[in-house]
Amino acid sequence: DTGVSQDPRHKITKRGQNVTFRCDPISEHNRLYWYRQTLGQGPEFLTYFQNEAQLEKSRLLSDRFSAERPKGSFSTLEIQRTEQGDSAMYLCASRGLIPGLTASTDTQYFGPGTRLTVL
Amino acid sequence: GQSLEQPSEVTAVEGAIVQINCTYQTSGFYGLSWYQQHDGGAPTFLSYNGLDGLEETGRFSSFLSRSDSYGYLLLQELQMKDSASYFCAVNNGQNFVFGPGTRLSVLP
């Protein structure tokens, strides 16, 4: 357990429906990332928050995707009008130091992910 | 463009040493990290190189040569539980770019 939690762990939805995922990062970390991962591939960057500000957004993220981090703590990722191509694992990671445990500020702690299946 | 290359698969026996290479081409470079991911699990941090040279963490070591845009992860005294996928990732100053991953199979 890295201290990063995600909810739900699994989501099955029908094409065209909206879905929302939640991520609770490590409380001391002000940086939060969302990634998408498909089978056999590495995590693909989607978006990045520093506190409540969304500082970076991948060109791959269509207008159907939106993310928020309203109070600089938890974050949500919403996908509107889901498509079958959205089926993937959605990973959240928080980044920062944990005194005595972390080697560098590049260390990211990943949550368990939300596996989305669009039928 | 942003791209990282890794071998897709590596196989080794218990007790052996294996090296997983990573070459990168990114718009910026602020460090190379390595992550381990077991099937069905989330990536977990293994090692980081911000400067050239070797970093050692127990059975795992990682090396970086910025002039060659190259790094590797060295796993020693392989154990069955090391069977997993291994990803290199570059911090390009804006976000993190992950490689496609190397699937390591450790045989008895």
Gross morphology of chain B = globular
What's the overall average pLDDT of chain B, rounded?
95
Average pLDDT number of chain A: 91
User: Fraction of residues of chain B in helices?
Assistant: under 10%
Q: Greatest contact pair? A: A-B, 23 and 26 residues
Question: How many separate helices of chain B?
Answer: 0
What does this 3D model show about the protein?
The complex is a heterodimer of chains A (119) and B (108). In chain A, strands 2, 4, 5, 6, 9, 10 and 11 form a 7-stranded mixed beta sheet that branches. A 4-stranded antiparallel beta sheet of chain A has the order 1-3-8-7, with no helix packed on it. Chain A has strands at residues 5-7, 10-13, 19-24, 31-37, 44-50, 53-57, 65-68, 75-79, 88-95, 108-110, 114-118. Chain A is globular, with a radius of gyration of 14 Å. Chain A has no helices and 11 strands. Chain A is mainly β. By secondary structure, chain B is mainly β. Helix content of chain B is 0%, strand content 57%. In chain B, the strands form 2 sheets. In chain B, strands 2, 4, 5, 9, 10 and 11 form a 6-stranded mixed beta sheet that branches. Chain B has a 5-stranded antiparallel beta sheet with strand order 1-3-8-7-6, with no helix packed on it. In chain B, β9 (84-91) and β10 form a beta hairpin. Chain B starts with a strand and ends with a strand.
